[in-house]
Amino acid sequence: MTQRVCAGPATVLALVLAVTVSSAWADDWPQMQGPGRDGVWHETGILRQFPPEGLTVRWRTPVGPGYSGPAVAGGKVFVSDYERLETGGQERVLCLDESGGRVLWTYANPEADYTRFAYNTGPRATPTVDGDRVYVQGAAGDLYCLSVAEGAVLWSVNLPRTFKARIPTWGFSCAPLVWGELVLCAVGGEDARLVALSRTTGETAWASLAATSDIGYSPPIVISAGGVEQLIHWNFDTLTSVDPATGALYWELPYGGEMSVATPVADKDRLLVSGFYGGSMMVRLATDAPEASVLWHRKGGNEVNTDSLHALMCTPAMEGGHFYGVCSHGQFRCIDAATGERVWETPEVTVEKARWANAFITRNGDVYFLNNDRGELIIAELRPEGYRELGRTKLIDPTSGGAGGRELKAVNWVLPAYANGHIFIRNDNEILSASLQD
Q: 150: exposed, middle or buried (C-beta count within 10 Å: 0-12, 13-18, 19+)?
């Protein structure tokens, strides 16, 4: 493989600037959690109730196993999987035609070592599309920069070998982020917790901070706060802000608990982080300088006895004075953002009370689309006054293991994509596109 470095999403200047994404990207979903990496879908004309017969699936295409969500840009769909062969297997990136699901090209990496981490069924990170390039984080540490047109390798790098990075327990999962001409990556190397690489060449622009713990699974984001743009990353023991242009440290706050998976959530002068063991912590962002302080931290007694929110895979949605998310055993909760106090909870979203029960949250106008790990899609209103479900439909079969004792014996832990009036979702056997147009 060409030894170089990888990159990420559509050029994203700031998480909080999602509403200003240019029209060229407005209807696409070029990276995890959408154009602003914030779980907001800006399209209009989207249905608010499901047809009695369920959604119309326009195509299904076979794929191999993986937890990697799809990205949609420029009439194409990008997804990663793992193909098992008689002699072993290979990690792949597939490019499909958005309208028909036909595979346009496939890039395969037979060198990816899937014996060095758990849940080794496939890649985790959603590909990131930026113009004529797509950036893909492989589970074993290979970063690829591929041409959108034909899948040719423009540059790549192996993180463990290049940056002395340790492979996380569940594999590399942090989708890289394109910021201007840089690709921002969470690496976890001995002297390179975070790195920035040239978007076009893969050359290292800066490497910052020694790894103090496992790098975790939470992807980097960029926000505007304190008069500057800040690269935010959460690993197993710290919440960190650096200058995305230079890697210089702005501030760092301790946050223990391990299992950093969900993405931090920014809302004006507040920044929320929530973890399975560590509970929820709300940070106050200074308005006149890149500084931060803890507003509150609610830990709960343990993973079962929780009083606020102990998120795992579900990135909470913060709107107004409240935020919403899935707690450690599937409880869907509304939390007062000012205090961390629980306002209400419901078991309806995930159905069963089970460890790691999950749903992913996407806001569209005045409603939320919730993808639970039973393969269902839900439309709901989330208000401080309560949870109101508008509709629920079966979307895809759950096929992944790791859900010991679950009612359906399998789960679907994949971030969906919402683009051009459709939802795109995959399991270990197929990827499909279904219409959500009103």
A: exposed
In contact, 349 and 363? CB cutoff 8 Å: no
Q: What is the pLDDT of residue 182?
A: 98
- 282: in domain: yes
Cα-based angle 237, 372, 77 (whole degrees, multiple of 5): 85
Closest among 288, 273, 381 to 337, alpha carbons compared: 273
Q: Report the run of H or E that residue 162 belongs to, with start and end.
A: helix 159-163
**Structure-block tokens of residue 39:** 């779980």
Name, in order, each residue with C-beta under 8 angstroms of 114's C-beta and a sequence gap of 6 or more: 82, 89, 91, 120, 139, 140
d(C-alpha 91, C-alpha 93), whole Å:
7
List residues bridging with 240 in a β-sheet.
Answer: 233, 252
- Write out pLDDT tens, residues 130-159: 999 999 999 999 999 999 999 999 999 999
Distance of CA 428 to the CA centre of its chain: 18
- Provide the number of structural domains found in the chain: 1
Residue 10 lies in a domain: no
Enter the pTM of the model.
0.92
In a domain, 91, yes or no: yes
Domain around 416? 15-435
Q: Is 6 among the domain residues?
A: no
Cα distance between residue 325 and residue 358, in whole Å: 9
Residue 402 pLDDT = 65
CATH number at residue 212: 2.130.10.10
Q: Comparing C-alpha atoms, which of 159, 163, 161 is closest to residue 173?
A: 159
Give tens-digit pLDDT for 43-70: 999 999 999 999 999 999 999 999 999 9
Amino acid at 342: R
86-106 tens-digit pLDDT: 888 999 999 999 999 999 999
Residue-wise pLDDT for 252-307, tens only, equals: 999 977 789 999 999 999 999 999 988 999 999 999 999 999 999 998 777 888 88
Q: Centre a 10 Å sphere on the Cβ of residue 347 and count the other Cβ atoms it contains.
A: 13
Residues 332, 324 contacting (CB under 8 angstroms): yes
